[in-house]
Amino acid sequence: MLCERHTARLAKSLTALPDLYTELGVHLVPRRTGPVEVVTTSGAGPRSPLNEDVFDLVDGGHMVAVVEGWRVDVQRVRWPQHTPPPRSGLAADCRWLGMELEWIVVHYPAAGDLAREVWALESAALSIVGAPLPRPLRVGLCVAVTDDTGTVCGAPINRLPGQGRVVCRWCSATYATEQDWLLMKHYQPKESA
Q1: Main-chain dihedrals φ then ψ at residue 158, nearest 5 degrees
Q2: What digits encode the pLDDT tens for the residues 38-58?
Q3: Which of 43, 61, 64, 65 is the most buried (most CB within 10 A)?
Q4: CA-CA distance, 151 to 83, in Å (whole number)?
Q5: Rounded to the nearest 5°, which phi and psi values hold at 139?
Q6: What is the per-residue burial (b if ≥16 Cβ within 10 Å, else e) of 59-87?
Q7: What is the pLDDT of residue 193?
Q8: Residue 87 and residue 83: Cα distance in Å, rounded?
Q9: Shortest CA distance to 89 belongs to which of 64, 110, 66, 71?
Q10: Chain-centre distance of CA 126, in angstroms?
Q11: Bridge partners of 167?
Protein backbone atom coordinates (compact mmCIF):
# COMPACT_ATOMS: atom_id res chain seq x y z
CA MET A 1 0.00 0.00 0.00
CA LEU A 2 1.18 3.52 -0.78
CA CYS A 3 0.11 6.73 0.91
CA GLU A 4 -1.41 9.59 -1.10
CA ARG A 5 1.87 11.49 -1.29
CA HIS A 6 3.80 8.48 -2.60
CA THR A 7 1.00 7.64 -5.05
CA ALA A 8 1.17 11.17 -6.47
CA ARG A 9 4.97 10.95 -6.68
CA LEU A 10 4.76 7.59 -8.48
CA ALA A 11 2.23 8.98 -10.97
CA LYS A 12 4.53 11.94 -11.64
CA SER A 13 7.54 9.64 -12.10
CA LEU A 14 5.69 7.36 -14.51
CA THR A 15 4.74 10.43 -16.56
CA ALA A 16 8.34 11.73 -16.57
CA LEU A 17 10.17 8.48 -17.47
CA PRO A 18 9.46 8.45 -21.25
CA ASP A 19 10.76 12.02 -21.65
CA LEU A 20 13.83 11.25 -19.53
CA TYR A 21 14.46 8.16 -21.66
CA THR A 22 14.35 10.27 -24.83
CA GLU A 23 16.65 12.85 -23.28
CA LEU A 24 19.11 10.12 -22.25
CA GLY A 25 19.44 9.15 -25.92
CA VAL A 26 21.15 12.48 -26.58
CA HIS A 27 23.86 11.53 -24.08
CA LEU A 28 24.72 8.35 -26.00
CA VAL A 29 26.50 10.33 -28.71
CA PRO A 30 29.92 11.59 -27.59
CA ARG A 31 30.37 15.35 -27.79
CA ARG A 32 32.59 16.54 -30.58
CA THR A 33 35.17 19.08 -29.62
CA GLY A 34 37.21 19.13 -32.81
CA PRO A 35 40.36 17.32 -33.88
CA VAL A 36 41.97 16.67 -30.52
CA GLU A 37 44.30 13.82 -29.74
CA VAL A 38 43.14 11.78 -26.75
CA VAL A 39 45.95 11.19 -24.28
CA THR A 40 45.38 8.86 -21.37
CA THR A 41 47.02 9.41 -18.02
CA SER A 42 46.53 5.92 -16.64
CA GLY A 43 47.99 2.66 -17.79
CA ALA A 44 44.60 1.01 -18.05
CA GLY A 45 43.95 2.27 -21.58
CA PRO A 46 41.61 4.86 -23.03
CA ARG A 47 38.22 5.44 -21.49
CA SER A 48 35.08 4.93 -23.48
CA PRO A 49 33.78 8.19 -24.98
CA LEU A 50 30.28 7.13 -23.93
CA ASN A 51 28.80 7.44 -20.48
CA GLU A 52 28.35 3.77 -19.65
CA ASP A 53 25.50 4.52 -17.22
CA VAL A 54 23.51 6.00 -20.11
CA PHE A 55 24.36 3.00 -22.25
CA ASP A 56 23.07 0.61 -19.57
CA LEU A 57 19.83 2.54 -19.03
CA VAL A 58 19.01 3.15 -22.70
CA ASP A 59 20.85 0.85 -25.09
CA GLY A 60 21.16 -1.96 -22.56
CA GLY A 61 17.39 -1.76 -22.22
CA HIS A 62 17.41 -1.68 -18.42
CA MET A 63 14.83 1.09 -18.09
CA VAL A 64 12.48 -0.50 -20.64
CA ALA A 65 12.91 -3.99 -19.15
CA VAL A 66 12.17 -2.87 -15.58
CA VAL A 67 8.98 -0.99 -16.46
CA GLU A 68 7.82 -3.74 -18.83
CA GLY A 69 8.43 -6.34 -16.12
CA TRP A 70 6.23 -4.43 -13.69
CA ARG A 71 3.47 -4.05 -16.28
CA VAL A 72 3.51 -7.79 -16.99
CA ASP A 73 3.45 -8.64 -13.28
CA VAL A 74 0.63 -6.22 -12.45
CA GLN A 75 -1.47 -7.68 -15.26
CA ARG A 76 -0.63 -11.23 -14.09
CA VAL A 77 -1.87 -10.44 -10.58
CA ARG A 78 -4.92 -8.45 -11.63
CA TRP A 79 -6.05 -10.69 -14.50
CA PRO A 80 -4.42 -14.13 -14.04
CA GLN A 81 -6.50 -15.60 -16.87
CA HIS A 82 -4.98 -13.23 -19.49
CA THR A 83 -1.83 -13.90 -21.44
CA PRO A 84 1.08 -11.51 -20.90
CA PRO A 85 0.72 -8.25 -22.82
CA PRO A 86 2.71 -7.80 -26.04
CA ARG A 87 5.74 -5.53 -25.94
CA SER A 88 4.58 -1.98 -26.42
CA GLY A 89 7.47 0.27 -25.41
CA LEU A 90 8.33 2.37 -22.40
CA ALA A 91 5.81 5.18 -22.97
CA ALA A 92 2.88 2.77 -23.37
CA ASP A 93 3.93 0.71 -20.32
CA CYS A 94 4.26 3.84 -18.17
CA ARG A 95 0.87 5.10 -19.38
CA TRP A 96 -0.74 1.70 -18.66
CA LEU A 97 0.74 1.54 -15.15
CA GLY A 98 -0.43 5.12 -14.56
CA MET A 99 -3.98 4.22 -15.58
CA GLU A 100 -3.94 1.20 -13.25
CA LEU A 101 -2.38 3.12 -10.36
CA GLU A 102 -5.59 3.28 -8.32
CA TRP A 103 -5.86 -0.51 -8.34
CA ILE A 104 -2.11 -0.98 -7.81
CA VAL A 105 -2.09 1.18 -4.67
CA VAL A 106 -4.95 -0.70 -3.03
CA HIS A 107 -4.57 -4.30 -4.22
CA TYR A 108 -1.09 -4.96 -5.64
CA PRO A 109 1.12 -6.56 -2.96
CA ALA A 110 4.38 -5.26 -4.46
CA ALA A 111 3.26 -1.64 -4.93
CA GLY A 112 6.07 -0.36 -2.70
CA ASP A 113 8.72 -2.26 -4.66
CA LEU A 114 7.30 -1.00 -7.95
CA ALA A 115 7.45 2.58 -6.66
CA ARG A 116 11.02 2.22 -5.37
CA GLU A 117 12.26 0.82 -8.69
CA VAL A 118 10.53 3.52 -10.74
CA TRP A 119 11.99 6.20 -8.45
CA ALA A 120 15.45 4.64 -8.76
CA LEU A 121 15.18 4.73 -12.57
CA GLU A 122 14.05 8.35 -12.46
CA SER A 123 16.84 9.29 -10.09
CA ALA A 124 19.48 7.54 -12.24
CA ALA A 125 18.23 9.32 -15.35
CA LEU A 126 18.09 12.69 -13.60
CA SER A 127 21.64 12.27 -12.33
CA ILE A 128 22.74 12.14 -15.97
CA VAL A 129 20.43 14.60 -17.74
CA GLY A 130 19.70 17.06 -14.98
CA ALA A 131 20.02 17.84 -11.34
CA PRO A 132 19.55 14.82 -9.08
CA LEU A 133 16.66 14.87 -6.66
CA PRO A 134 17.48 16.82 -3.49
CA ARG A 135 18.23 14.70 -0.44
CA PRO A 136 16.85 15.54 2.97
CA LEU A 137 19.41 16.53 5.57
CA ARG A 138 19.16 15.38 9.18
CA VAL A 139 18.98 18.49 11.37
CA GLY A 140 18.45 16.90 14.76
CA LEU A 141 16.01 15.05 16.97
CA CYS A 142 12.47 16.18 17.74
CA VAL A 143 12.36 17.84 21.16
CA ALA A 144 8.57 18.03 21.50
CA VAL A 145 7.10 16.76 24.78
CA THR A 146 4.52 14.10 23.93
CA ASP A 147 2.75 13.42 27.26
CA ASP A 148 2.11 14.69 30.80
CA THR A 149 5.17 12.92 32.23
CA GLY A 150 7.62 14.89 30.06
CA THR A 151 8.45 12.22 27.50
CA VAL A 152 10.36 13.72 24.57
CA CYS A 153 9.57 12.45 21.07
CA GLY A 154 13.20 12.04 19.91
CA ALA A 155 12.37 11.17 16.29
CA PRO A 156 14.89 12.29 13.65
CA ILE A 157 13.97 15.56 11.92
CA ASN A 158 14.99 15.77 8.25
CA ARG A 159 14.80 18.89 6.11
CA LEU A 160 15.17 19.44 2.37
CA PRO A 161 17.45 22.30 1.32
CA GLY A 162 15.42 25.51 1.34
CA GLN A 163 12.47 23.94 3.17
CA GLY A 164 11.11 26.31 5.81
CA ARG A 165 8.45 24.33 7.67
CA VAL A 166 9.00 20.75 8.85
CA VAL A 167 6.49 18.53 10.64
CA CYS A 168 7.73 15.61 12.77
CA ARG A 169 6.57 12.35 11.19
CA TRP A 170 5.99 10.76 14.63
CA CYS A 171 4.37 13.35 16.87
CA SER A 172 3.34 16.03 14.32
CA ALA A 173 5.30 18.80 16.10
CA THR A 174 5.92 21.71 13.73
CA TYR A 175 9.25 23.48 13.28
CA ALA A 176 8.67 26.61 11.22
CA THR A 177 10.06 29.71 12.89
CA GLU A 178 13.61 30.65 13.83
CA GLN A 179 12.65 30.27 17.48
CA ASP A 180 11.48 26.67 16.83
CA TRP A 181 14.82 25.79 15.18
CA LEU A 182 16.86 27.44 17.95
CA LEU A 183 14.84 25.65 20.63
CA MET A 184 15.38 22.33 18.88
CA LYS A 185 19.12 23.01 18.53
CA HIS A 186 19.41 24.01 22.20
CA TYR A 187 17.80 20.80 23.52
CA GLN A 188 19.73 18.35 21.32
CA PRO A 189 21.44 15.56 23.27
CA LYS A 190 25.05 16.32 24.03
CA GLU A 191 27.63 14.21 22.22
CA SER A 192 29.40 11.79 24.52
CA ALA A 193 33.16 12.24 24.41
Answers
A1: -115, 150
A2: 554 555 555 555 566 676 677
A3: 64
A4: 56
A5: -105, -10
A6: eeeebbebbbebbeebbeeeeeeeeebee
A7: 44
A8: 12
A9: 64
A10: 10
A11: 174
CB-neighbour burial class of residue 48 (10 A; exposed 0-12, middle 13-18, buried 19+) = exposed
| Higher pLDDT pick, 113 / 1 | 113
Answer whether 14's CB lies under 8 Å from 98's CB: yes
Q: Say how many CA atoms lie within 13 Å of 14 toward its Cβ.
A: 23
User: Cα 89 to the chain's mean position, in Å?
Assistant: 22
Asked if residues 125 and 21 have their Cβ atoms less than 8 Å apart, the reply is: yes
Asked if residue 33 has pLDDT above 60, the reply is no
Three-state DSSP state, 149: coil
Nearest 5°: phi and psi at 84? -60, 145
pTM for this predicted structure: 0.60
Whose CA is closest to 9, among 106, 133, 168, 130?
133
Q: Which of 8-12, 52-56, 60-64, 95-99 has the lowest mean pLDDT?
A: 52-56
Burial of 186 (0-12, 13-18, 19+ CB in 10 A): exposed
What residues does each domain of the chain span? 4-29+51-129, 137-186
